[in-house]
Amino acid sequence: MKNAFFYFIVFPFYGLIQAMKNYKLPWAKNMVWLFVVFYGYTMFRPIGMDSSRYVLKLQDISANPRTMNSFIDSFFSTDSEGNVTFDLYEPLMTNFVSLFTDNGNILFAFFGLIFGYFYSRNIWFLLDESKEEKRSKIFWILVFVFVAVIGFWELNGVRMWTAAHVFFYGVYNVIIKDDRKGIFYILMSALIHFSFAMPILVFFLYYIVRFPLKLTFILFIASFFISSLNVTDVGLFLENTLPEVLLPKVKSYTGDEYVEIIDNLNQSANWYIQYFGKGLNYSIAFLMTVIYFSKNNNYKKEKSFINLMSFSLLILTVGNLLSSLPSGGRYLLLAQLFGTAVLILFFLKFYSMRYQRAVYFCSPFLLLFILISVRKSFDTVSVMTVFTNPLLASIIDTPIPLIDLIK
């Protein structure tokens, strides 16, 4: 931890690079954790994005402190614009920070503190499985895909993506580590973002029923051939089954106006933004198929791996089905996090030349995914994040996104 603090104080970005080069050393994952905290402090927060709204909320609360009763009443209630507050994490953190500052940098440093902890631990869950000092290019391609699926730059959407890493952390502990304390983190993800009620339902359905690998594989393959879900029908079903307090959220996500906004955004996006995620999804499907039919049957003898693969196929199936809905693609990203973890674990635990060749075959699509993900990060990673340290950043508060240096 001493090395991590040294790099954090002197040059966090260089410390991040050193952490990846020396991933076997105990301080490395803590360096990644601290770097995410620094990123939160120095990130560029575009006007209109979630992050800028949270900063405005912090400033409003700081200028107009709430009484305890009004703060408690703000949960699970509808405001004048029809927005409903279901999550506990963001309001609690924002109100806590408002007690001593209205500085948005500090708010997102705190958000980074939580996000970075689970993000770094999830990465090292997989890196710790590597027994060799040096690994092949295939290994690092797969690792960087995992790092990029829900990268630290997604802190802008702090609730959804923090919940995703907390959920993964919990599931991995339960399935791979056989630690039932992970169930606490699984349940906690819904308090960070209410929409994780669905992944939690999928997990407990799997946990209770214990779907066999063959069935989840068939369902996964079938999900690629099922027609897109009808948004209106899904909305009506949810309105008839969910509690009344959730209806405003359901209507906002399935209403015609929101559907039209999402469609317009998708149509205006560059081609690589529309397709780089699909390339990853089909690569995961192809590599999962190679694993399933692998001649090396040793993986079938390791119960924890089979369980993780089976659950990953199940949540990938759900992600494929929901990806046709507005904002449903967020579930597919969560599922791809699990799918990529399976690909890495198979590579580390079970030798298969056919699988290695398959990864090489998919590498152009995987590298494209990494490249475009890094390009997306340039919208919020600032010059200060890369070239300064906490001392300089506290003096010079002019975050300029890296993308401005390229355009």
Reconstruct the topology from this structure.
Blueprint: H1 2-10, H2 12-21, H3 28-42, H4 50-63, H5 68-73, H6 89-98, H7 104-127, H8 137-149, H9 158-175, H10 182-192, H11 197-209, H12 213-223, H13 231-241, H14 247-254, H15 256-268, H16 271-292, H17 303-322, H18 329-349, H19 353-377, H20 383-387, H21 390-395, H22 403-406
Q: What would the keywords be for this entry?
A:
single chain, 407 residues, mainly alpha, 22 helices, 0% strand
Task: Write structural notes for this entry.
- The protein is mainly α and 407 residues long.
- It has a domain at 138-380.
- Helices cover 71% and strands 0% of the residues.
- It has 22 helices and no strands.
- The chain has helices at residues 2-10, 12-21, 28-42, 50-63, 68-73, 89-98, 104-127, 137-149, 158-175, 182-192, 197-209, 213-223, 231-241, 247-254, 256-268, 271-292, 303-322, 329-349, 353-377, 383-387, 390-395, 403-406.
- Helix 4 (50-63) packs across helix 7 (104-127).
- The longest helix is centred in the last third of the chain and has 25 residues, at 353-377.
- The protein is globular and about 65 Å long.
- The chain starts with a helix and ends with a helix.
